[in-house]
Amino acid sequence: MSKLARAFLRHPSGRIGLAIISLYLIAALLGIVGLTPHDPLKLFAIDRLKPPSATYWFGTDLLGRDTFSRLMVGIKQSMIIAFCSVGLATLFGTVIGLLAAWWGTLWDGILMRIMDVLLAFPAILLALLIIAIVGPGTSTSVAAIAIVYTPIFARVVRGPALSLKQRDFVDAARTFGSSQPYILSHHLLLNLVAPLAVQVTLALAWALLTEAGLSFLGLGTQPPTPSLGLMLAESKNLMTQAPWLMIFPALTIMLGILGFNLTGDALRDILDPRTQRREA
Amino acid sequence: MTPLLSVRDLRVGFGQNPAANEVVKGVSFDLAAGETLAIVGESGSGKSVTALSVNRLVDFGGGRITNGSIILQRSDSSTLDVAKADEKVLRTIRGRDVGMIFQEPMTSLNPVHTVGAQIEEAFRLNRGLHGAEAERAALEVLERVRIPDAKSRLAYYPHQLSGGMRQRVMIAMALASSPRLLIADEPTTALDVTVQAQIMALLAELRAETGMSMIFITHDIGLVAGIADRIMVMQHGLAVEQNTTDAVLDNPQHDYTKHLLNAVPHFTSGKAVRADNERTATSEPIIKVDDLVVRFPVKKGLFKPKGAIHAVDGVSFDLMPGETLAIVGESGSGKSTTARAILGLVEKHRGAIAAKAGRSRRPIQMVFQDPFASLNPRLNVEALMAEPAIANGQKLDDTLRDRMRFLLDRVGLPADVLNRYPHQFSGGQRQRLCIARVLMLNPDVVVLDEAVSALDVSVQARVLDLLVDLQREFSLAYLFISHDMAVVERIAHRIAVMYAGQIVEIGEARAVLSDPQHSYTKRLISAVPAVERRRQHFAVDATQVPSLVRPAGYEPPPANWREAGQDHRVRIEETK
Amino acid sequence: MNYVVQRLLTFPLILLGVSILVFVSIRLVPGDAITAMLGTEAGLLTPDQRAALAAYFGIDQPIWSQYLRWLSGLFQGDLGISSIYGKPVLSIILERFPLTLQLALMSMLISLSVGIPLGVFAATRNERPSDLIVRMLAMLGQSTPSFVIGVLIIYVLSVFFGFVPAMGTFTPLTVDPLASVGQLIFPAITLGFAFAASVTRISRSAMLDVLSDDYIRTARSKGASQRSVVWRHALPNALIPVVTLSGVEFGYLLGGAVIVEQIFALPGLGRLVLDAITQRDYALVEGTVLFIAFNFLLVNLLVDLAYVALDPRIRIGGR
């Protein structure tokens, strides 16, 4: 495991990605405990639309709220939604994909056709449909993104699980009379950790993007709670007077997605069986 | 006269720093026009890299020539140092002066182009032929490599052809430009023995027809005996011995050559079979298989009726305690399916498999062909060894660890390996680990499914010796599945020959090997390459394995047997 | 051919599943259907009027019979009446669809014509500076959401060029092709930006995989030139994953149109979905979502068939 960590830190994308994620996690933690430079919700009426300065690092908005503090809380909001939704999607997707592959035939058909139905909707549309039913909000965003990504995880798990099921070591386990839970956990799941780790990281990037997209449309996190997408959307009409209101949220969103994408890429490179074989 | 090819002090390295990471460490050899040189060595000896350097394909695999010269005489009698030539010039020697065929016919042809288009391309690039002319030339060369019904095969895609056929297409492509030198990189390793014999005979005939030179790379010193003029033996990137074929085979000088010749299983037509087991009429079989049938359904489109692959069709045999029964056959013969059916890994369609109650709850255990695939890469040795015991209700405690250490020691692995992972072992060590693992349950029968086929010859010989020792010590019965007659001769007491899902001949090992009765057994035995039989000549033969897909409801006619001796039965062949 | 038959058979099955999901989802909306349909006016109804309306719309029937009625309506092109527009849902959709389709096709065209050559270029320059630059750009592109790119494009255009893209209206292709394409060019770039980046990445890695395949070595041993190796031997094999990706991405383009049409204030299908959701026009939500999913599935089916045409191993089947 330490060999893996070293290889990861030697990978340039891995290093940059990890640095960005750490930065965001720190920002999110500070956002949770409330250690922001200013109160993100407090209106400093005399300080409307102030450009970046020593007091307001990233400037203030139309209502005189501190952009930097609001971004920190926005990051917290985004990270919570991304981690919760991807966690749920990983759990359900893995279980469904694993069981579909293991049981095979009829159950495989039924489970995967249900996943196909979910996949028949463009991701954002499915999320919108769910929001249309339940109404917007943080927990709706979590549920919507989780439902969107569950079938993707199911597919990512099912493919390799099917080929693992054919492998000689699973046949060997059968000849020993090993129990099904033992085979599923030791022979299938243990070998799926690598592809899952990559997929989870990339899905986190996607979840950040989707969350920001939903709140950009006004259908994600509801005001007054700050969210990155909404901050960007609100900046649209003020872009000529106050470009900082647009630039900083845009960069914050991009950088966050970039961090997870870079990490996922580095993980894929390191865990790729082809590169592994070259080293062995 | 100057040689066609003259290689001096060739060094090839890989990676960022090729000089420090050499795979070929100073190899020199000459090749005269019309001569065939065999480069023999085990995996990692640098034999393929040496050959790929001759047309500099090694560059595309990440290799760099760090030193030496490769002087090639071209068709216009000019000479060229390939080691220093640039890519543009190299392109004109590839295909035109130097043709090449590769090990894996399955992946060496482009899947999205027809074989015709791929052969025509060779003609276009090297002879400037186009359109109908190229097509005619392609057809002609396909006929030269003895592909039946060549005209319709031109429109086939590679995946529609068998391995042997694809290798013929590769040869046709290499011949397109009438190269003066053909490099064959393990061209028959991936093929069945009888197909291998066909390809070898074809290469020998083509060489005689065209007068081209050949460099033949192989790990099997027995295989090249019949085709090579000279042999160069390589080990760890060095040529340890080179001389004429007869001199190397009959009077080897270097220890490694002697070792290789010793390790190669020599097939002696039954003279070397084991004599440590006599069947007695009173003993009771530990496994009795009666009329075993395994079928895999196939769907033929939506509306056509379903058929089935008759993988195993009416197989019967019995196995006595302490005895080795070898099941011999080529790919698709049903030998592995038979083994898997006995273990319950595939469902049988019909028939009975009766196993006598043994020393443990699971008296039959299996060792698989590929030691890399049969060990879970994420589990360490302790977990791997413990799995069979845990599956049968034991606990991972010190008693169990003691048994692990005892068995690991017994198969020749150090006892301190319990915390290591499979990728830290060599192929031979992994196979030893697999053997130790199946012994954890103290079985009565071990099924060995091509268990030594994936190993280098010298490793193979030691694992075979180990298997014989273990058989005596633990009184095991072996069901030994193999395609390799020479290996079988060393370990089998009895032999069953399978062909197209059926046993065609079964009996005592010496009788089957020295006096084969069925035409397929005879063909199989004559195809075994052997140092001793190198002066024998084989005719090109294009017999194809029949299709095993049968229409729904088809039942094969009942088998008729005749006795060819005491404990030697042969299936009577139908005359058409 | 087995594969094609299987795909054609599962297509209606998935479609049925999609229709059930959409129908049930909308019926899960809290509150009763008549209030949902009429909004505040529903409060003025007498119980008798309510019952009559319920009978008229068939809401008093069990859910499965409502579904069958709704489904048979679908087959006749009856997607219900929009409460915002007071018109049949299908006619509104068909009015808005050309814009969204043109937008999606334009972005796809842009992405593929930028992404494939860039990816192939990068693969042949593996690990050299030009490859690293392409990879960095692609990574950045993939991490930039369309709404960020869209807002940036509008900002750059208006601040530095004093140019504001026409918003609110749309000139159909049939009326003035040039103006129509010109009007959608920036939205199309916005929508296709991330897709171009992923096409680049997939093309590059597929090309790299293929270039290390055995048959490439065979082609080289025949004396084929680098150009012939790349374009004739490698590209057809490397395109297979790109085609698969394109099918999936087309759906994202249809979905992404929701955001891009919002940014550029374009009257397309995406805006319609959004309006329907924010104004709780459930018939319209149902119709638009179903319509988009149907198109997505159709495109995926077509892509799968294209895939079959590209790969003889599937087209012709094994021995």
Largest sheet of chain A: none
CATH-derived topology of the largest domain in chain B:
Rossmann fold
Number of strands of chain B: 22
Mean model confidence by pLDDT of chain A:
86
Q: How many helix segments of chain B?
A: 18
Structural class call of chain B reads alpha/beta
The proportion of strand residues of chain A reads under 5%
SSE sequence of chain A, one letter per element: HHHHHHHHHHH
Number of domains of chain B: 4
- Strand percentage of chain B: 15-25%
Enumerate the spans of chain A where pLDDT stays under 50 for 5 or more consecutive residues: 276-280
Q: How many domains in all of chain A?
A: 1
CATH class of the largest domain in chain B: Alpha Beta
Strand order of the largest sheet of chain B: 15-16-17-13-18-19-22-21
Termini gap of chain B: 56 Å
Structural class of chain A: mainly alpha
The CATH homologous superfamily of the largest domain in chain B is termed P-loop containing nucleotide triphosphate hydrolases
Short account of what is shown:
The complex is a heterotrimer of chains A (280), B (576) and C (319). Chain A has 280 residues and is mainly α. Chain A has a single domain, classed as MetI-like (MetI-like fold), CATH 1.10.3720.
